[in-house]
Amino acid sequence: MDGWTDGWIGEEEEIVAGVGQLDASAASEKLLLRVGLPRAFPTVDTPRGIDSWVHLKNLKQGARYEARVCWAATAPSDFWLSVHSTSGRNEDGSSELYLKISAIAAYYTTNATLMKTPEPVLVDIILDEFLLGALPRSLLNVGFFIVLMASVAWYLGIQIVKWIDAIATKESKTKVT
């Protein structure tokens, strides 16, 4: 979502099936939206199922973002994501986009009711800003943990080598005498 858009949403186009909004200026725990997305089996008229919309607000100009959809493996589904922009910027220079999520049911069952009308799939929609254009903000804690563990392993490695070297040196001195 770094500058490209799939389409434009003007005032003449009505947004339907909105499921919520994510505000990029909010605290990081507010950048997750848990909703039940409607889905359908693909048809000739709707090959990508049912469309749902999420309003992405207060996006920083020039920043990169990642939108993720997470769902349980027990609810087989396929999703298509596309980003649509509004016709301008806010007074503070931030922008607003709309994330279109198309969902289809991707299973077969002998239950006729589920084959006729699939149940909504519970999803987490996550908006994640990239730090320095490379690292998703949600992975910052993981990055710190990896650096900490690598530092501890490096320090312990040096201490273990010194310890083994001391043992080997004592062994060689006792054999010589």
Key phrases:
alpha+beta, Jelly Rolls, 2 domains, 5-stranded mixed beta sheet, 2 helices, 24% helix, 38% strand, elongated
Question: Care to describe what's here?
Answer:
The structure is a single chain. Helix content is 24%, strand content 38%. With 177 residues, it is α+β, with helices and mostly antiparallel strands. It folds into 2 domains: 7-133, Jelly Rolls; 139-177. The strands form 2 sheets. A 5-stranded mixed β-sheet has the order 1-6-7-4-2, with no helix packed on it. The longest helix is centred in the C-terminal third of the chain and has 37 residues, at 140-176. The chain is elongated and about 85 Å long. Mean pLDDT is 81; it is low at 1-16.
Q: How do the strands line up in the largest sheet?
A: 1-6-7-4-2
Order of helices and strands: EEEEEEEHEEH
Shape: elongated
Question: Which class best fits the helix and strand makeup?
Answer: alpha+beta
Query: Considering DSSP H and I runs of 4 or more, what fraction of the residues is helical?
Result: 10-25%
- Proportion of β residues? 35-45%
**If you consult CATH, what is the topology of the largest domain?**
Jelly Rolls
Mean pLDDT: 81
Summarize the topology.
Layout: E1 7-8, E2 18-23, E3 32-37, E4 50-59, E5 65-71, E6 77-89, E7 95-105, H1 112-116, E8 121-131, E9 135-136, H2 140-176
Parallel strand pairs: 1-6, 2-4
Antiparallel strand pairs: 3-8, 4-7, 5-8, 6-7, 8-9
Offer a quick outline of the entry:
The chain has 177 residues and is α+β, with helices and mostly antiparallel strands. The chain has two helices and nine strands.
